[in-house]
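Why should sequence recovery work at all? Because a backbone constrains its sequence more than one might expect. Tight turns favour small or flexible residues, buried strands favour hydrophobic ones, and helices have their own preferences. The token representation captures these environments compactly. In the example below, the structure is given first.
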């Protein structure tokens, strides 16, 4: 059994349709529906992106960045991290949109069903988390057209390039 079939065997349920290779990376099948939208996504110079591998200090980094940019707003930090720091591919990891289309009674917050749309519509400074590799990030980041602040957590050390 090849790697893709082995992963697929464990990655299928009503919210997950399986995985496929996309530019050499194993991703949920529904990623193909979002790839162009992510690549063409308008990036703002005021954005702050935390890009990392899972389990490499991402949550800790998100909390630190939030507190820095909010001038230590501990009261605001009581709000769930998913609302303060939107996860770019949350609607891709689990196909909430497809599931809701087949189950209209399913209740879910917008930022899980269409995170890219929610991120695009934010008026304030956007805090965005992603586990996507560099080659799958928006083109404006990769080609340097826009220069958001990008933080890369690294085993609980943090490299944050932001100006408060």
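From this structural description, the recovered sequence reads:
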């Amino acid at each position: 059994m090849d790697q893709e079939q082995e992963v697929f065997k464990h990655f299928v349920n009503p919210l997950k349709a399986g995985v496929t290779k996309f530019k050499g990376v194993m991703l949920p099948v529904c990623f193909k529906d979002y790839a162009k939208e992510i690549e063409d996504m308008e990036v703002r110079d005021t954005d702050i992106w935390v890009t990392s591998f899972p389990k490499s200090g991402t949550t800790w980094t998100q909390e630190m960045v939030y507190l820095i940019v909010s001038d230590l707003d501990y009261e605001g930090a009581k709000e769930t991290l998913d609302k303060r720091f939107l996860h770019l591919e949350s609607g891709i990891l689990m196909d909430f949109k497809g599931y809701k289309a087949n189950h209209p009674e399913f209740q879910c917050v917008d930022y899980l069903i269409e995170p890219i749309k929610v991120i695009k519509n934010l008026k304030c400074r956007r805090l965005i988390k992603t586990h996507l590799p560099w080659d799958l990030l928006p083109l404006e980041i990769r080609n340097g057209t826009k220069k958001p602040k990008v933080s890369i957590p690294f085993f609980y050390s943090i490299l944050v390039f932001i100006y408060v």
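A few observations help interpret the result. The longest strand covers residues 19-22.
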